[in-house]
Specification:
Strand 4, helix 3 and strand 5 form a beta-alpha-beta unit. This protein is 26% helix and 36% strand. The chain has 4 helices and 7 strands, in the order βααβββαβαββ. Strands 1-2-3-4-5-7-6 form a 7-stranded mixed sheet, with helices on both faces. It has one domain: Gcn5-related N-acetyltransferase (GNAT) (Aminopeptidase, 3-Layer(aba) Sandwich), CATH 3.40.630. The longest helix has 15 residues. Keywords: Acyltransferase, Transferase. GO terms for molecular function: acyltransferase activity, transferring groups other than amino-acyl groups. InterPro entries: Acyl_CoA_acyltransferase, GNAT_dom.
Length: 164
Amino acid sequence: MTGITLTAIKETDLHFVKQVYDWYVLHSTATFHTGPVTIAELHEFIYIGHPRFGSWLILHQQEPVGYCYLTNYKKRQAYDKTAELTIYLRHDCYAKGIGQAALEQLEAYARVSGFKNLLAIISGDNDRSIHFFEKNGYFKCAHFKNVGEKFGKVLDVVGYQKEI
């Protein structure tokens, strides 16, 4: 898809990020948060101005339609070549090629930043995300059974990996 760009998230963008994320919190099992997050909580995983791990708005023809980010998989030096990636689109922006374009740009950034492995950690019932990552060359490398519960449903978590 053309017209998709990533731009670094600024503090003033966090209200948009919160709006997108809170929709998933309240309506899906894509995230294991069970109530709306605060801006302070967003800072725990949305890094602003970090020299390696970035957070970006996803723009479609200059309009924000989602966000994505790379975080450290674990905060230990031996994992420095591995990043966890996350993509959230506005719920009305699925199946339009936006996520695909964002993923391609994230992977390119990860390569030039020296990462060798990308991980996607996904709720086991999130078939849309599982299919998306499989379609893009990620393979299932982990399956944690019954580790979460949301909306009265016990949930698995699966891990997908791609060597880049």
